[in-house]
Amino acid sequence: MTVAGAMWPHAVDSNHDRWRKHAACRSSDASLFFPSGSTGAAIDQIEAAKAVCGACPVRDDCLRFALETNQDDGVWGGRDEIERRRLRRVWREGDRPARHSVTV
Q: Where are the beta strands (DSSP E) in the chain?
């Protein structure tokens, strides 16, 4: 699956969480997005969480929030912890707002 165009600034916008009221996960159990581990049954849980994100109209806003606020755990914006670490590293290395097209 390819998701295009996650873009985020260095500073968090004061209105950064307005997107939450439109999030597809609002009616989901929050624990789905915070699996215990990254192997075995957790893999299925991560994929289920990403499926919810896949249909979310504010997925990019959620990912931006997670990156800007250094959310280390869980699935945010359709990205797991490892994927977000990679995005954050590229962003920091470039020392500029980044635009990424990531293939998962």
A: 2-8, 98-103
Structural domain of 53: 17-103
Question: Quick check: is 51 in a domain?
Answer: yes
Gap between the Cα atoms of 104 and 97, Å rounded:
21
Count of domains for the chain: 1
pTM: 0.73
User: 38-50, pLDDT tens digit by residue?
Assistant: 889 999 999 999 9
Let me know if residue 84 belongs to a domain: yes
Find tokens 């597809």 and name the residue: 24
**Three-state secondary structure readout of the chain:** CEEEEEEECCCCCCCCCHHHHHCHHHHCCHHHHCCCCCCCHHHHHHHHHHHHHHCCCCHHHHHHHHHHCCCCCCCECCECHHHHHHHHHHHHHHCCCEEEEEEC
Task: Copy the structure tokens of residue 24.
Answer: 């597809």
